[in-house]
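Suppose a colleague, Dr. K., hands you the sequence of a protein chain of 283 amino acids and asks what its three-dimensional shape might be. Before reaching for any lab equipment, you can write down a predicted structure in token form. Begin with the sequence itself:
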Amino acid sequence: MRWTDDRGGNVEDRRGLGGGAVVGGGLGTLIIAAIVFFLGGDPSSILSSGNSSGTAQTEQRELSAEERKIGEMVDMMGKWNTNTWEQVFTENGMTYEPPKIVLFESTTRSGCGTAQAAMGPFYCPADQSVYMDMSFFNELQKQFGAEVTEFTVAYVLAHEVGHHVQTLLGTTQKVDEMRRSGQYSEAEMNRISVATELQADFYAGLWAKRTDAEKHILEPGDIQSAIDAAEAVGDDNIQKRSQGYVNQESFTHGSSAQRKEWFMKGYNTGDIRQGDTFNQLLR
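The predicted structure, expressed as tokens, is then:
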């Protein structure tokens, strides 16, 4: 991935500031919670039950040169996302407001409750912020079989920003209304969740296409690394690794093949109008 001079991506870096660190749960608890999160569940109950020792306070520390470089990279990627989505929204007669991107380690506060490393990167609609503990990418490589590159990080961030786009367009609110209505079965809500996640993958692909056309950031292998990450966190791959079998009715994020398909559809078209996963998947 080719770097540019773009900076100012609305990043708040909380790494090294100290605060509560999760203790007592152990690595096994964190991995289980991560699996639950990727399957669309709520990992908080697992983390709470495995966290009987409470939290420990960590001292502030200086970030290493490598950590500062990672922060600079995320800042650049955040700016890329802002530039691209401002352009897309303007073309469609709308105004884009970028999310905040919060880098943290171990645990931090969010508008959706306590953010923990085991939850993986996520978007919080309540404060319109993306939360990322960069240790997730080590787990992505070790536990889920994806080779992590710089563009892997770019894809994951673009996917979470895709959820922000859904919030700005009202999609997130409509899905929440459907969930609260009680009119839909668990299986039906799982299918709606799959459509939501695949649309975020589509938006990530669209972002990659439009950003490369403007900034020429892509190098050989970059798109494949994004596909590898998308496939690694497909529901079928995670279920095979965690329980040894696949239950399609419990999918909440989409299969590996679906995640690749919708990312590539976004990348190949670069057209936000082609990303209506709900009509395509829920007929």
